[in-house]
Structure formats: C-alpha cells, structure tokens
Specification:
By secondary structure, the protein is α/β, with parallel strands linked by helices. It is built from 14 helices and 18 strands. The structure holds xanthosine-5'-monophosphate.
Amino acid sequence: MNTAKHERVLVIDFGGQYNQLVARRVRECNVYCEIYSYRTPLEEIRGMNPKGIILTGGPDSVYAENAASCSPELFSLGVPVLGLCYGAQLMMQVLGGRVERAPEREYGKTEVIIDKAGSPLFEGIDSPTVCWMSHNDYISQAAPGFEITAHTGNCPVAAAENAGRNLYAIQFHPEVLHTEHGFEMLRHFVMDVCGCSGDWRMDDFAESMIAELKKKIGSGKVLCGLSGGVDSSVAAVLLSKAVGKNLTCVFVDHGLLRKSEGDMVEEVFGPDGPYDLNFVRVNAQDRFYIKLAGVQEPERKRKIIGEEFIRVFEDEAKKIGHVDYLVQGTIYPDVVESGLGGESAVIKSHHNVGGLPDYVDFREIIEPLRDLFKDEVRQVGLRLGIPEKLVMRQPFPGPGLGIRIIGDVTAEKVKMVQDADAIFREEMERAGINGEASQYYAALTNVRSVGVMGDERTYDYAIALRSVNTVDFMTADVTEIPYSVLKTVMNRIINEVDHVNRVFYDITSKPPATIELE
Ligand code: XMP
C-alpha cells in the first residue's frame, strides 16, 4: 500500500507500554500513523514530512545517565510536537525546564484541574477531569516560554504548552481509556493543532491494495498459509481477488482447532465457497498427536506444534513446486513487536510463526496487512465481504487447544475440550454476553477427582472455564458472568461431555495469570 501519499503523524517510542495504543488512537482519527524508535535520526524524521510528532512514555528517568533522549532540534522542525508522560518530561528538560523525583508517586485515576480552558487540547472539556497517571518523576518547573495548562494535587505541571511553537506536554496518558476525555485531547492535537484532514480510511484500502498486488505479481504463483484466523483470511482474500487461481492456500488442520472450525474454514475458502483460489486442506491430526504423545511441558508442546506445522506446510509446498511469492498475514503490531518499528524489542515468541519453511523456494514475501492494526484488518475483511463470524473472531493461539489442555495431549482430551468449549460458546451467545467478553474458552485441567454420577463413583477430569475482558490483551479482567449462566454451562458440560465431573471458573486477572493456561 502506498502510504506515502497520506498525511502522517509519527509516534516516537521511548519504550512505553502504551506506544501502540497511541498510534491506534491516531488512526482512529483517520490519520495514518507510524511508530519509530527514539534512535531514528532526525534527518529521517524530517524526510518523512510528518504533520505532527508524539513522544511516548518510557521506563527511564530523563535525568538518568544514558536515558533515552532526543535532539533539541526535534522541537524546531516547525512540526507540532506532543509529549506524553516521559515524552512530556523530556520535552521540558531538553528545553530548559526541570524534572525531578516526585515526593509522591502518582498512579491510577487522578483528578486533573485544567488551568487554561482555552488550550486547544482541552477545548470543550470540563475541569476537573479524570486522567490516568503513572509516574515517579514529575515536572517541577516548566521550560521557559511554556504556560502551565493543568495540574493535580501532587503534580504542579500536569500539562503545559508553548502554543506559539505548537509544543504540548501532558504528564498523564490520554491514550488509555481510563482518561475520560483522552481521545478528545489526542484528536484535538491531531486535527486542530497539526491540521490533519483525516485522509486515512479503510474504504479504499482493499481496492487499492488489490490493484497494487495485481500489478506487482502479474502472472506469478502465490502460496499462502491459511489458519482461518482473521489476518491470514483477509490476506488470502485480498490475494485471491488480485491473482485468482494463481493463489494456492494451504490450510493445516493440526487437530487442535475448536469444534467444527476446520469445516468452517473449508466452507469459506474451499471449492464450494465464494472465492476463486486453490484450496488445500491437510488433515494432519495424527501427525501432531503422535508427536505430542506423552509430552507434558508447555514450552515443549508449543515448540513441537510450531515445528510440525512448518514440516507439514513444507511437505505441501513441495507438491506445489516453485512459487514466486509467499504470503504472510503480518500486521502492524507484529512489525512493532519484532523491534522493527519502535522500541519494544522484546519479541513475544508465541506470536511468531516460528520461522519460514526451509524448503519453500520463493522469490519474495508479501505482507499486504503489515501497515494495519487488528481493528483495521477487520474493517477491510468486512468490506471484502468475508463472513462476520470469521472476521470478528476472538484471538486463537497458534498452538490451539494444545495449550488449553494441561499436561499431555490425546485425541480423547481434545474431544472433551472441543465439546465443553462449544457448550460454553453456545451459552455465552444465548445469554448475550459474548460481545462483552474479549476472549473466552474452556480448557482441560489435568486434575482428576472423585465424583458421583447416578449411583456410580467417578474419577474424572475437571474443565476450567476462562473469560476475560481486555482492550490490548496485555492486561485483562475477568468477565463477570452471571451465576445462572455459569450454572447452566456446568450442568450441560457434566451431562453432555463424557469423563468430566467438575467445572471450575477461573477468576484470576492478568497479571498475575496469563490469558491462556499454558
Ligand atoms: P497470554 O496467554 O500471553 O495471551 O496472556 C495473550 C493473547 O495472546 C494469545 N496467545 C497466542 N497467540 N500464538 C498466538 O498466535 C500463541 O502461541 C499464543 N499464546 C497466547 C492469547 O490467546 C491471548 O489472546
């Protein structure tokens, strides 16, 4: 996608945990936004001709030795700059203000008193307003030329601005939902201060991407690994619309999918579906079960599943022969998390596909979605007419049910989890709370315990139900499912799923627990 023609705002990343959220919020204003490390040379930043620059939060203290920093010239490019948290402190320090350890750390929801109602960022926002604070240091003195525009009980400079130079600093985090009017503040910056018109829309993304792919690929052969997840499905449809039968999609059913999931994918992408492509379904269940037999340890299971996946894919690719392009459903957070965009160099191993097949002989990788966030991918998917149940799907881990069965995996256990999970899903939908929860599923604990059924003593398994509400999947709260719904689910699971005699509901938030059990 040619993003160069769009107006853009740059997020300069100082390692803050909310960096992607800042960029997403800007995109929600229909403004194209990219994340770059604070190490990016000034010339490069200037060359991108941004309409505005946002400096993120970060873990350092601006006054510490080797702290992440920026050139003072960044503030003299004639481009509006908004500093958030660490970014705000850095702006103040670099321009001659003072930052020091706060006598009291501020964390959580905090009332902010707006001192300058006429500030462009606070237009239409009443004082006081609730904001999300998270800092140990504070700005004790604003830089010369800056006016203090907001404060809190503990923080003399919660916001400051030099309107003449279009420089703005905010100590709190407008990008998180806990800041009541945070999105409005960001929108004021992007639209009113930077003067963006909002020319980034998903409406024409699909059409122009298809045209671009057509031009690039011509009559080349394309191979796409299809998981049935949102990203690879949208990528596959874009490619099929661009090159038709020159695209082959390989769908590996590893026997660790949810109930009926393989058939659903085949219904959409198979020969009876609406798309013109070559669809290959590989029923590789047994290969995976054999490799997983007796393996208990979670990381080992993940590794086995990842590796076997590549081997199966390779075997299929060999049958197809030479391909010119390999499609990957990489999306923007993957790019950022692999350290290519911003500062978050910590690669979450489980989010990587686990490398490329060695065999596949191809010229180039195509990643049509690498500039998009998940919600944007979904918009494109809906626009392409992909069924909503596929586009709006909850995240499902690559290793699938393999990491939702504690201990060793067997075909019988997979069936138990699939059946229990399908019941849980059905009842959540029936109760109308499926939209509220971000991700929910049933898992098989490796716990067996004594029970009684009819007049018989049982010694059977316990199912754990998990349901979380989250925005970014980094932290999560437990869904407060009504007791009556839980009871119905429990009854049905006990009655309908063989070898289960107990049902637990996991009420742990993340942290300390993760969303998946393994
Ligand atoms: P955790 O368990 O780390 O999960 O709290 C956070 C989100 O990531 C998903 N997840 C995975 N996704 N491969 C994936 O593609 C994996 O190995 C994997 N492990 C966890 C999880 O479902 C949740 O949405």
